[in-house]
Specification:
By secondary structure, the chain is α+β, with helices and mostly antiparallel strands. It contains 19 helices and 7 strands. The strands form 2 sheets. Strands 3-2-1-7 form a 4-stranded mixed β-sheet. Strands 4-6-5 form a 3-stranded antiparallel β-sheet. Strand 5 and strand 6 form a beta hairpin. The N and C termini lie far apart (56 Å).
Amino acid sequence: MTVMVVPAGAVGELRGWRRTSPGRRALWTISRSAGPFQNGTPPPPQRRVHRLGRHADARPAFEEGFRLYHQALAHATDPEERATTLYNLGWTYLRRGHLGHALDALQEGHALTRGARRDGLRWRGHLFRCALALHARACGQFDLALGRARHATRLAGDDRAGVYAWNVLATTLRLDGQTAAAREAQQRALELAGDGAARDTEALYLALIDVGGPDAGAAHDTLRRLAPLAAPYDGWRARLHLAQADLRAGQTAAALQTLQAATDANEPYVLLDEAPALTDLYAAGRAAGLLLPAPAARQAATLHVTARGMPAAVLCGRPVPGARPLALAAVAYLHHEGPATLDTLAGALLDLPAGDTRGPARIRAALTDLNDLTGTDTLTVTRRRAVTLGPDWTVSTDLDRPGPDPFTELYGEWITRLAR
């Protein structure tokens, strides 16, 4: 089995190929474009923007890395190697701000790991859930992001995947304004991180939460100390928050200089991700003529079920590949008819004798699978034997529209009535 290394911090590429493979060469090519401040101390402020400008245009390295990742996918036959490549490709697309391509790669990788028996694939599944939470967050889908992150913390263990999951949850809570819950989650990430660079990174993320509280001074000191030591993705978050502190202290020129450097540093995802927390800094930057991302408009967690014709599901505007018709029929029933027991759902959707225990078991398995497809466990909720739709979800169907008969592969009582 290949040895996997996940760098400390919220995200990182997976390393698990032979040194000469396309995947390894892609990872090396991408790493060259990470920008300055990978080692040592940043240059003095008066020279910072100039030096950053010399290193800023890393697009050719990213383009070459993308080409090599796709080459690696074309040759990857081992499921673990393919999952590794898909994770790295998805994360790199996400880091570059290509959200659609990122989702394609991450969904494919998530599908590859779902239900896997091999330990390596199951472990990678935790990472895909975290990365899908990051994607939802970047799209403004905070309910979905929180659901995915919480689901990841419940499934991941106390290893690096657990640190990743708790970090993603904490940062999502912070950016959603839930400071106390964010601090509790980040403390858990810090506890799991152990010693060394991983602990420093999680301490940096804890300081990002504390900059808005009574210990802001100590938090700023921590960010100043750790930013030069952190990976670029993490270090720029720290520098941006220090710039906002400079702005509020009246040091506008220094704040804008750091912000200019951040726009040149080739980390568009960080600029987009931190936008909800840096409104003052970004407003000052735009007034000074800088091009800065606006936070994505908030979106509720939505699922649309196409029942007529070929059953399908659309999650927050994107198709959900692999959704079982039985699960979609159960969601449609709950949406139109309200809460129901598993026995009621089985009678409504399946042509089985009353009391047949296979019916409720099939419904339960289908709903569990659909929840896992969304990356959460909140789409349906069971309380006192009654199954309901999760309160954070907005569900719709096409059953009120004319069209072909719905769910033609199912023959339960409710399905038969709909077809009349």
